[in-house]
Amino acid sequence: MFFLLQICADSKLRPSFLTDKAMEPAIKYINKKFPNIDFRGNNVSMKQFICTILFITTFTVFILCLVAFDLKSYIIMSLNFEFTKNYLDLIITYTSVIITLSRIDDKKVLVGMFNCAHEMTNGCSDPSYPRLGQMFVEYEHPWKKLTEEFGPHTRSVTAALLSLKMVYPRRNLPAEQWRSAQLLNLLNAPATMMDPACCDTMACEYLPLDVMERWIIIGFLLCHNSLNSNQASLELWKMGLRSGIYLTLIRDEVLNIHKVSEDLLDSFKGYHKRIADIKECREHVLANCGAMHRERRNFLRGALKELCKVLEDEPGLLGPKALFVFMALSFSRDEVLWLVRHSENMPKIKMMLSFTFGFTNGHWGVLKATQNCINMYVCPEEESVLFSSFVSTLSALSIKQVENKEEFDFRALRMDWLRLQAYTSVAKALLPMKDYTDLPKVMNLIQFHTRMVDSLEDMLHETSELSILCFYPRVFEKMFNQSSEEMPMKRYLMSFPLACSHFSQCAHTLCPEEVNILEKRSLSLCVTFLDQIAKQTSGVMLEICAEQRNLNDQLLPKHCAETISAARHRKQKKQLPKNKEVQKEKPGAESLRKNRIIETNMDKLHLTLTELSSSYTLCTDFTVFNHIVVPTEFLLSHLEIDFVKTFSSRIILKMINYNQTTQEIARPTDLLAGIRTYTTSLHNLSCYINVDITRLMKNVLLQQTQPLDSNGGPTITHLYTTWYLEALLRQASGTLIVHCPTMQCFVSQTTDSELTFRAEEFSDVSELQALAELIGPYGMKFLGENLMWHITSQVSELKKMVIENMDVLVQMKNNFDKPEEMTILKKRLTGGENVLKRTTIIGVILSFRLMVQDCLQDVRSNRIVVITQLTFIGSLLREVTLNVFELASAAGLKCNIDPDLVVAIRNMKTDNTSSEEEHKISRLLLIYIAVSLPILALDPNSFYNQVHGGHNNNIHCLATAINQLAAAMFTVQNKNIEQQLKEFLLLASSTLLQLGQNVEKVEVKNRESVYLLLDMIVEESPFLSQDMLESCFPYVLLRNAYREVSVQLPSAP
Fold first, then answer.
1. Which of 75, 93, 831, 948 might form a disulfide with 160, Cβ 3.0–4.6 angstroms?
2. Which residues, 6 or more positions from 451, have their beta carbon under 8 angstroms from its beta carbon?
3. pTM over 0.85
4. DSSP-assigned states of every residue in 846-880
């Protein structure tokens, strides 16, 4: 019925036939003529919902109420709790159904259209239609009709309600009285701490307050005569009116108790005083009720915290003090429901607990029950059977059953107790319950403890179920948002998505259409809350990482120059320069504070993280409509998304600080230190929450090894590849930056045009190792592919120059041993300097690649110790296939043949050129380089710098270029590499020896430096040997060359 009310009120769910304009005349006709309708309309399948549910709910329930009255039962809460509770629930359910039915505006249309459709289909009206239609007419004004029906039941209903007089006032006390009575306090009497908590009305102690208020207010409205004739009824009713403004009928359908009471009693004579009482109670609610419930919440907040701490420290108290736990849950739930009904803010939500039960009370219950049975002189047969069943069931219990972990089921015992209440509560019972008041006390105690054993989930559901929040999504979200803003409440935020797991209890098998709607709403709220919690946690974690990175940045070596300079001045007793800035605080100064009350930003962030992380410890997973929800997975997902998004867009760009215009960029070691700080800070999160941070960092940092991340933004690999190609290697192609084999780095030379960076600060071993660790093998592969692209562009130009001078090169190849012919041919040869320059650029790029590969191998050997044995495999790489070269190169091992260069040169091959022509061009290219080497002696920068271990114009990189190019080109062509290099060595030796025949001093100025190139070529080549070199070039010349360059100073450029 509630679902029907909702879909009729919601424009999105409203049935289409109710909104169809063609049906408007029929709808108006039905409303006007109902229930006497002669109409032919569409077939509407409403029989299951209307003709069955409404009929059974209204008439059958009402008949049960009459039966209870006719029996003239003694309905008293303290004597027969279950019987009285079911009786009052029956009345309230019946009333709620009638009131809810009256709020369905389209009920006549739906029933009338169904009856017409039934008549069209079956030829007659539905048999239930006349009674149902008559009921709709009679209950047009439901309250008036209900009071008429319950007039004869006033005595029994009043008796049942007045039995709450000992329970409801005690439950509806202000917080001051709770505090003075030390309610829920386990520490106020240490001597009796282990004594079982019990009372005469066990079940009444955790009976929901809103249930009792519905009984009292609606019950006395139905039997309003009692308000004028019984002062106790009036006082109890006024106490209920002072509890609030609204009362729940069903879900989010509420009853304005003061307005309904005033309207109803105003229609009767003699109730002017009661109307005045209603107005007085309403004024009292508006003035005091909000403050009273606020104080109750404040009290419960502290009491629950203390109770949880005591039970966590002493879990053995859960058995004897279980009643306190359920009372605390019930009281907290009452306040939550009151807030929801009145759309107020919710500062706290209760915590779920788990319980165990000890059997000490069970034996005591057996003895008391047996004693009562013996003292009864007259016991009817049916009651005697029930008593015997009680005694036999309870006497059979033992500790061994608990030790053997047997499952208990006491539902039959509790059903027998309810049956016994019915037998002994009627007026003419042979064994009246009212004469044996000790019996219900003992049986209620037994019932409570048996439920603790086999119905714990039902007890928790009864005292802590919050499914009502499903129907107040706006209020629920508002409560969450307010709790998110308060620091003490952040640790309880997980209670909001946990409450969504209760929403499945709203579904009912009689209304399957509602399940999908409830499921979508529950999952939507749950996901929203989890996303918000994860978003807050992720944001705080990233802020902590940023703060830690700033602190770590202060410890970098580059920031200690000022400290060293100041210490040097103090040691030399010199005054600091006047224009010098005031010395900054040393790292760690933020930890020194005079007052601990002063909180730093880091303190606040860690406190927030601790509170948020505490919420994740409430549960590892929970179920929402058969969907298993894992909160930590939401956190990991958010961390990954936020970290990837901010890592590339903000963190990386900020830490790298790349400026394409000025070619400024952070050193790889600085960036690596910052990323390690982020990683360490994120790993600290695992100390709070059980999350796999290693998996997160792998997923995030793995994207940085690719050219673009998942969002399409630039990565570390892309930025550093661009910088090293566009800044460092481009400058190294000139004379501004020199490759230094001795220090294994590039060194900036002092020139008039100063660079914006120092090459050695970005290319030494530590920096390139940091780069290798940052971008990994995948990033190195991307870097290598870009390097190969630049190499192939140079090779293409070299091949064009070879083709232009092919005839001359062929003649020089055939006449290399004829100096006169070679002199003439050299004059015809063009572009020799350009060839050497482009080959030098290739050599510089390949030298940088070798440096990077060596650093990758160092990083790999440190991080993957098991694969260090690949070094032994590397010594055998001469005799393996190219596929193994690719594997070894990816691991950073040095290969005789560069697989990436082989692939790049193979891709250069065009269909128009045959293999023989390619081989010829490759051979002539080596000859071109060999015969052009003497030109280098004319360059003043060709001097060999002993400190750097290379030449000032990077021509020593020719050795790397020649060896790698020859190996790659002839591997593609499947030719003998050693034979081709021998030919090159022979031509190069011959042309360089001719330098000694030239007497012009300018030409031979750096002759010895150029001689050393031959030794470098042979030294780096895996295919040449010193014996081969000595056979074509005298070793004495090399020895003299080394001696000359060691005593000479470099020529001025």
1. 75
2. 410, 414, 458, 459
3. no
4. HHHHHHHHHHHHHHHHHH-GGGGGHHHHHTTGGGS
